[in-house]
Structure formats: structure tokens, C-alpha cells
Amino acid sequence: MIFLRPLQRRVHQNWLGVSVLLAGLLSLSFPLGQGDAATIWQPVPMTTWQWQLTGTIDQSFNVQAYDIDLFDNDASVISSLHSKGRKVICYISTGTWENWRPDAGEFPDSVKGSGNGWPGEKWLDIRQTSILGPIMEARMDLAVQKGCDAIEPDNIDGYANQSGFLLTANDQLVYNRFLANAAHERGLSIGLKNDIDQIPDLVNDFDWALNEQCNEYNECNTLAPFINAGKAVFNAEYSGNPANFCPQMNSMRISSIKKGLNLDASMTPCWSGTDTQAPRAPGNLRTR
């Protein structure tokens, strides 16, 4: 979902005991995230990408990764993108209830808060992980079933918004780390969506970052910890001239693109103005 100001969230990691026989009996234990690290996609700075959450996916863009909606696309779309050498990020909202989703009925009224400004959408009480946890894990399981390489968890900064709940920064850290841990347990890469104020606390938990409008709001420097850690930062700007903001984005090694607010196929990349195909007209648009 698009917010004209960014959002963010994440949490901890449990331990997996592994028994190993080496010339006798030897018992070792590894943190699960570390044990699976070799199989989890870790995009590096300046990874090229396309972000399309509305309309039929235009697969003609010459980029390394696509970010698409989990529910609106079936496994064949993801498989097709894989056949073209693309990694696939699957979008889910983990901080809001959306009344049009197929699992909307799983959310009791007790976890629904204030509207977040988008029709049919309400903030969630992220403190109630006994309820939200299984729902979000089921969504991640669906992402695995469809073949997604990563997930984009949206609306993970409810604590910084008027959610209808008395959420604290620590509540957000706990929830965001829960999401990161659950994704890693399933071999999924996960990005920190906006939530720039908590980047210092969460940069080690997330595999990359996705930001909206850091140039417009003069916040791109706050994303430096991800770049310094060798992790990609994906950024979308909705206003301004790419000729003006792209040189700075490229110098900071931020993978920046110019998008429309409806996040259809149209895209102008900062890394080049000529290496993508002209987008087709999208259909069935839903502002996100």
C-alpha cells in the first residue's frame, strides 16, 4: 500500500538444535536465520527492480527483481518471472486489515483499529501476536507455495501512526522481528518497508529495505546502514524529475525508480533510461 509518508516493522530469532556425528557424537546448535542464510536471497546495493501491485504483470522489464502482490498473482506468474531470471518479492500488508483479502474473515474485531486513510483498510493491534501471528505465517506459507523468493511486509510502523491503539516503539520492534524470524524460518527474504526511525535497531534483522519518497522528504541518508551492510535499498519516488534526483540516488547506491501512485506497470528507473521496455496499459487498477 502506498503511503505519502513511510512505514515500518520486525522481531527476534529462535534456535534450532542440530545433532551431528563426527568421529563420536557432537552436538551443535545454530540460530535458524544463520543456518538457512545460504538459501535466503540477499540482494546487494543497486539491484534493479520493478514494483507493480496493480494490473496484469508486465514481465518485459529487464530487471533483476519484481515486487508483486501475493494474493493477486498465481504461481504461474511467479514461475514465468523465474524463467526470465527474475527474483520475485511478494507484497503483503502485515500491519493493516484489508477487507477484500480472501483471509479477511480470520481477523476478529478486537485486532482492528482506526482506518488508515485507504478504503476498507484498518490498522491492526500488533501486540496481539497470538491472533495475528498464525494469520501472517499462513500468508508466508502461501508465499512459499507460490514460489516467492521474498516478502514485502507493508504498514509496519503503526506505532508512529494514529492506529487506535497505544502502540509503542518497542511493540513495533517485537512485531517486526517476529515477521523477520517467521520469514527466515521459511527460507524467505524479507525487507524493512519504510519505518526509517527503527533502521538502526532492525538493519541486522532484515535482508534489504524498501522506501517511499526518501528523496522528496530528504531522508535517504537514514537508509545508509543497509547500504553499508551490503544490503539493497529499493526506493520509489512519486513526484519530481528523475533527471534531478537520480544522480544522487545512484551516487548513494540506492535502487530508485519513479512510479505512479497506483503502482501500475509504468516505471522510470534511475540506473538507466533505456534498459526497460515501454509498459503496456494496465487493467483492473486498484489504488494501493
Chart the SSEs and their pairings.
Blueprint: E1 15-21, E2 25-31, H1 32-35, E3 49-52, E4 65-69, H2 75-83, E5 87-93, E6 96-98, E7 112-115, E8 121-124, H3 129-146, E9 150-154, H4 169-185, E10 189-193, H5 199-202, E11 208-212, H6 224-228, E12 233-237, H7 242-251, E13 255-258, E14 268-269
Parallel strand pairs: 3-4, 4-5, 5-9, 9-10, 10-11, 11-12, 12-13
Antiparallel strand pairs: 1-2, 6-8, 7-8, 13-14
Helix pairs in contact: 3-4
What would CATH call the class? Answer: Alpha Beta
Question: How large is the share of residues in beta strands?
Answer: 15-25%
CATH superfamily: Aldolase class I
Kindly, what is the distance between the CA atoms of the first and last residues, rounded to a whole number of angstroms?
4 Å
- Name the helix and strand elements from N-terminus to C-terminus, one letter apiece: EEHEEHEEEEHEHEHEHEHEE
Number of strands: 14
List unreliable stretches of 5+ residues. 1-35, 273-288
- Helix fraction by DSSP (H/I, runs of at least 4): 10-25%
Largest sheet: 9 strands, mixed
What sort of overall outline do the alpha carbons produce when their principal axes are compared?
globular
How many alpha or pi helices? 7
Mean pLDDT: 86
Oligomer: single chain
